[in-house]
Every structure is written in C-alpha cells, then in structure tokens.
C-alpha cells in the first residue's frame, strides 16, 4: 500500500483496534463482571453465575445484611437425609370472595403439617401444585368464569391426611378422620429455574421490587415463601360476584392441579395462632412425592362477616449436603465471605440463608456479589494497545 491508502490503514489500525481493546476491557470490568445485587429470602439456596468468571475474576466476595452460609464447589449439592424445620404462623382477615395464598417449593420427601381454624363458618382451604409464578387466572382482579368446575381426578403429587382431633363445644363441627392417598407418580427432577427470565421477576408475588438494580439468581436450588392474594384489597372485587361463581372460578383455574379442597372447623375462640398451639381442631399433613411449587389458598364462603383465619405451618424440608469440603471453600454463619478462584476453574459459589428450628420470618435480604478483577489478565489489554501502536508505526 502506498500514499493515502497507507495513511488510512495506519489510522485505522492505531485507533480503531486499540480503542476496541480498551472499550472491551472497560465493558468486562464495569458491565459484564460488575457487582451484582440479589434480593433473596429466608431459606433460599441459590447458585451464583452472573458477574463471575474464572478467567477475569481472581476472587469472589459476598456481603449481605444478614448471616448466611456459602460453599464453593463444582456442580450442585445432593440432598441429604436430614431435614430442617420451618415454622410459619399466619393470621388473615378474609372478606367474602377473596383469597390469600402461601406457597413453598418442596422437594420429594418433604412434609407439611398445617393446623388451621376460623372464627366463623365458611372458611375453606384449597391446595394446588403450580409454577413458580402462581397463575391466578384474573381472580385477583375480580374476573369470573361462568363454566362449571371440572371434576378432579388428580394422579399423585402428595399423600394427604386430613384429621380433625375435635374439641369440646358446640361451635366446632366435628369431621371424621379421613385419608386421601392420591397415588404416586414417578417424575424426573428437573433443573430448578436455570436462567430465570427477567420478565417474570416483576410478577413474583412474594417479593416486592426495590429501586436499586436487583437480579434474579441464575440457579435457584431452594426458595422461601411466596405470598399473594386480594384479601387486603377487597374493594376491587365486583359487587355482583357470587360465592358459586368465585368458587367455580377457582376450580376452573386450577382444575387438575387441585390436591385438596376442604372446609375446616370454626370456633369463636379462634382469635390467634396461640389458640392452635393449645388446641388442635384440624390437622392437615402433606407428604410430598414429587418436587414442585405447592400453594395453600385460603378463602371464605361467608356473605355476612369478614372471617378471621389463623394457621400454623410446620414444614420439614430435606437439606443439601456439603461433604468433604476444605475450610477455604466453606463460609458459615457470616455476613461477609471471600473465595479464591483458580483460573479455568468450573467451581461456583452456593449461598443459603439458614433457617433455625422454630419460628420463621419471611424476610428478604440484599446479597451483593463482587468479582475482584484478575490483574494478570486485564493487563493484557493496555499492553496489547502499546504493542499494536508500535508494530503498525513501522509498517
């Protein structure tokens, strides 16, 4: 090349290519591998991918406004035979034709024991198996279906025991003890929410969004509590909605996913969860036979009064096992953790928010994940720029 062509080529090679290298390094450091914030809750177990690289990060540090456990390992942990106990107490005020639900992700082998009562008659509980984002079919907006409910013929997700232990007094209707075994169904365990779609994060009922940039974990191994409903916003319910259409709406929405739909006893003494600690008038036990999201939906069939419902969940969930791990790859009961990252390593960090035995608060916390840049790799970019300029200067 001669003349103007040589000058143009020189300018291109000494400006565009070096600029590309510099911009690439800034993009990697400040965008691709920038600090990542997650909003996680009690009992969540997540695996962190976003913002991490074994090539461009030499350390991985974590910080949260609550104590947590972190483990650096390859692949995913296996479930152990041990269980952890989660206790959840909830009190709800239910106007007519409204619902409130509590959802959990449960592994096969988990057990849910539920005790509940209502102050007035007409309260019912509906248990369904759904997706991570519970589809409410417009029920929360007051929409109504006009079709009759489909017959329920469920092919095995849980083993249900519904038991009424009774109590002296005329205001507590007695139910016969009955067992409903809905069978067994062998289901392969699917990956739990790999590469979560960001558009679903805005729909998540339990966790409200924050003004700061928060991200979904790439892999959720276990989750906390999902909560939603329209009991606190009953003014949006259409005045002409009838009990039958509301219940038909529920049946039509969940159809084959219904595991149980049953009235539960009422008592004028049912005024708090403390009443359930001393007196058991209804006990529902679910033995989970396949992994999935299970929702306990409470609603009231009482046109005259707002019903008070009180419930206690005792959940026994299998725990993950982290065997034969060195101390440098384990961080327990801390608010800050740091791990070294070997180059070309395929190890990732798993974070779990521990739940102690007993009372559980469904709180949320902010976890900050930081990639500390690997200097020996980033230094290649400015050195390459200088070498390119020197090389093309002699062309």
Low-confidence stretches: 143-160, 165-211, 236-243
Cα separation of the termini: 10 Å
Domain module count:
2
Supply Rg.
Answer: 28 Å
Tell me the total number of β-strands.
Answer: 18
Q: Classify the beta-strand content into a percent band.
A: 35-45%
Mean pLDDT: 76
Order of helices and strands: HEEEEEEEEEHEEHEHEEEEEEHH
* Helix run count: 6
- Specify the helix fraction band: 10-25%
**Biggest sheet: strands, sense, closure?**
7 strands, antiparallel
- Global shape: elongated
Overall structural class, as computed from helix and strand content, comes to alpha+beta
Domain E3 ubiquitin-protein ligase APD1-4 middle: 283-392
Biased composition (Basic and acidic residues): 169-200
Pfam families: APD1-4_M, APD1-4_N
Domain E3 ubiquitin-protein ligase APD1-4 N-terminal: 65-132
Structural commentary:
The longest helix has 29 residues, at 4-32. It is built from six helices and 18 strands. It has 395 residues and is of the alpha+beta class. Strands 1, 2, 3, 10, 16, 17 and 18 form a seven-stranded antiparallel β-sheet that branches. A six-stranded antiparallel β-sheet has the order 4-15-6-13-8-9, with no helix packed on it. It starts with a helix and ends with a helix. Helices cover 17% and strands 38% of the residues. The chain has helices spanning 4-32, 198-201, 243-254, 273-278, 375-378, 380-393, and strands at residues 36-41, 45-48, 57-73, 78-94, 99-106, 111-118, 123-130, 158-163, 178-181, 219-222, 225-229, 258-263, 283-288, 292-300, 307-321, 330-340, 348-352, 364-373. The protein folds into two domains: 4-77 and 322-393, Jelly Rolls (Sandwich), CATH 2.60.120; 78-206 and 221-320, no CATH class.
